[in-house]
Design a protein that fits this description.
The protein is α/β, with parallel strands linked by helices and 597 residues long. It has 23 helices and 20 strands. The strands form four sheets. Strands 3-2-4-5-7-6 form a six-stranded parallel sheet, with helices on both faces. A six-stranded parallel sheet has the order 11-10-9-12-13-14, with helices on both faces. α11 runs parallel beside α13. The protein is globular. Bound molecules: thiamine diphosphate (TPP) and magnesium ion (MG). The site of magnesium ion has 8 residues, from α19.
């Protein structure tokens, strides 16, 4: 165990008398916390009062769910803790969705949940609910301050565990425990170094890779979290292996690299799918191989079922969980990759013999896919053709291609859940890690906008852009207040198709166009709403305006201004997400026969 004793910040040293509020805040200081997202509440006001002198910025948001997502975005871009705090009861229950999202994004978010006072707990007083059971399945660790003297110890543990287990932790504090006198020492952060994995497993993996004729690497979020990109590139070059991004981790390998093939999964790259289908050995690097990541797409059932699979994940429970694996390595993506490079360097590699053919195949598949994307101007199913026929609005795919072309260097892009956001997966390419923040497997509408606000706080010099459907925008636009009030300039690209499109697509495909609750009629002008809220707002109607609008909005961030670009797009819809989980309707009761397939 490597205990880091260095003080990251100027926290007080040595055992001494302090109040629990001071112990809490000093532990935040020791953990390097600079920013906390939340809504003010009496429950923790005594600690909040200390934030300015502790050098901690309190970012006041519009809704606690937004604070949770901001903490998530902050953590994902920085690799450090994101922290959120709220009033006991309703403020805390508003954290549930964002905590679940952070759980599936593996974000080290510390959710601070002041609780009703210990002397009235169970009496049904004001703003009381049991706060630990609610978060029990969406956190990696729950610290409950059961005695005020343990405030610093338990606060520190919540922070340490969030990084150790890579996921949200909860720190539950009865509100009366902020007051009083205690004697304590502020613990220093405990940072545990992860290793490369078991020797035998690494040897077996190296053997498998050395004998592979067509090895393919699949880079997941673990590559990003372990800062293993340079090592992944070295290994890919050593093997001259094609590299795919795992689903929604388009920033796990640089798109400009000749070995890069693009993302797998929903609306991913056909080039990546066709190349991984040829693999005799797949190296799944830093990925849990989540169930949606390898679903058939574009009519391609591409997962190479006969191939040897080497899976590397920091969480041993993920090895072989979803896909059978030949070798499972519990290790850090960077350390494990270095260990594999050491074993493979100087060894005779079967894949060297045919590397020329493989490189040619990568080039050809990528060129074919780019040409297909260029010509795929709109959706071609009958319903889409019909709704787009008389529309003067932009085709979503063409609009997304224009956004891709105008994307500023070093941009951070968050994406929501929705049909157009999902299609964007084909058009989002990145050169550096910690650049793409999708709603991941919790898949909640309303994720992208607050998340990119948090990302911008952690990386103020990078352009921050959220892709959001108009339905999801209705859930999350309230955080424009946060951007304006707290001077956090970002860009929201809102896809106005006047519908909850992703769900409508299921009505079209499975329910004979019986539309219920999917049309977003009588929406306000989102550009006008943005202006009324003190941001910039621009309605974009034509393709030629898309690029200039995005570039201007990114530039405005440098001048402190937030912009909403309202993209007027047709109602056409791309392939659905959950085709795997829906079925044509069966009806047995006479009353419902009219809805049978
Ligand atoms: C919080 C939440 N509520 C509901 C859903 C179900 N859902 C998934 S996609 C979707 C439609 C999204 O519509 P919009 O944001 O307008 O994007 P579009 O599909 O039109 O591009 C809905 C309602 C969800 N994923 N999350
Ligand atoms: Mg929509």
């Amino acid at each position: 165990m490597n205990i880091m004793t260095e003080t990251r910040n100027l926290a007080v040293a040595g055992k001494q008398k302090m109040t629990p509020s001071e112990a809490f805040v000093e532990t935040l200081v020791a953990q390097g916390v600079k920013d906390v997202f939340g809504i003010v509440g009496s429950a923790y006001m005594d600690a909040l009062d200390l934030f300015p002198l502790a050098g901690i910025r309190f970012i006041s948001v519009a809704h606690e769910q937004g604070a949770g997502h901001m903490a998530d975005g902050y953590a994902r871009v920085s690799g450090r803790h994101g922290v959120c705090i709220a009033q006991n009861g309703p403020g805390v229950t508003n954290f549930v969705t964002s905590t679940a999202a952070a759980y599936w994004a593996h974000s080290p978010v510390v959710v601070v949940t002041p609780e009703t006072g210990s002397m009235t707990l169970g009496l049904g007083g004001f703003q009381e609910t049991e706060q630990l059971p609610i978060f029990s399945r969406i956190t990696k660790y729950q610290a409950h301050v059961n005695n005020k003297a343990r405030m610093a110890e338990l606060t520190a543990r919540a922070f340490d565990r969030a990084l150790l287990e890579l996921g949200p932790t909860q720190l539950n504090i009865p509100r009366d425990f902020f007051y009083g006198d205690i004697e304590c020492e502020i613990p220093r952060p405990v940072v545990i170094e992860r290793g490369a994995g078991g020797e035998q497993a690494l040897n077996a993996a190296a053997e498998l890779l050395a004998g592979a004729q067509f090895p393919v690497i699949l880079c997941g979020g673990g590559v990003i979290m372990a800062e293993a990109l340079a090592e992944a590139i070295r290994l890919a070059e050593l093997l001259q292996a094609p590299v795919c991004n795992s689903y929604l981790h388009n920033d796990s390998f640089p798109a400009g690299h000749p070995l890069w093939c693009g993302p797998l999964g929903y609306q991913g790259s056909k080039a990546a799918m066709k190349l991984i289908a040829k693999a005799d050995v797949v190296l799944a690097l830093g990925t849990r191989l989540g169930p949606f990541g390898t679903l058939p797409q574009h009519g391609l059932d591409y997962w190479p079922k006969g191939a040897g699979i080497v899976q590397i994940d920091a969480d041993a429970k993920m090895l072989g969980l979803v896909k059978p694996v030949s070798v499972g390595i519990c290790g850090d993506a960077k350390a494990a990759t270095l260990a594999l490079i050491a074993r493979l360097t100087g060894k005779s590699l079967a894949c060297r013999a045919n590397q020329g053919e493989r490189l040619a195949a990568i080039r050809a598949e990528k060129a074919t896919w780019e040409a297909e994307l260029d010509s795929w101007s709109h959706e071609k199913d009958a319903w889409s053709l019909d709704v787009a026929k008389n529309s003067s609005h932009m085709h979503p795919r063409q609009m997304l291609r224009e956004l891709e072309r105008a994307m500023p260097d070093n941009a951070m892009v968050s994406t929501d859940i929705g049909n157009i956001c999902s299609i964007a997966n084909s058009y989002l390419r990145f050169e550096r890690p910690r650049s793409m923040f999708a709603a991941m497997s919790f898949g909640n509408c309303g994720y992208a906008f607050p998340t990119v606000i948090g990302a911008k706080v952690a990386a103020p010099d990078r352009p921050a852009i959220a892709y959001v459907g108009d339905g999801a925008w209705g859930m999350s636009f309230g955080e424009l207040q946060t951007c304006v009030r707290e001077r956090i300039p970002v860009t929201a690209v809102v896809f106005n198709n006047g519908q909850w499109g992703a769900e409508k697509k299921n009505h079209v495909d499975f329910y004979a166009n019986r539309f219920i609750g999917v049309n977003l009629d009588k929406q306000p002008s989102w550009a006008a709403v943005a202006k009324a809220m003190g941001a910039e707002g621009q309605r974009v109607d034509t393709l030629s305006d898309v690029g200039p609008a995005l570039r201007a909005a990114a530039k405005a961030q440098g001048e402190g201004r937030t912009t909403v670009l309202e993209m007027m797009v047709t109602r056409e819809l791309g392939d659905p997400f959950r085709r795997d989980a829906l079925a044509l309707p069966t009806r047995h009761l006479a009353k419902y026969k009219a809805t049978a397939a």
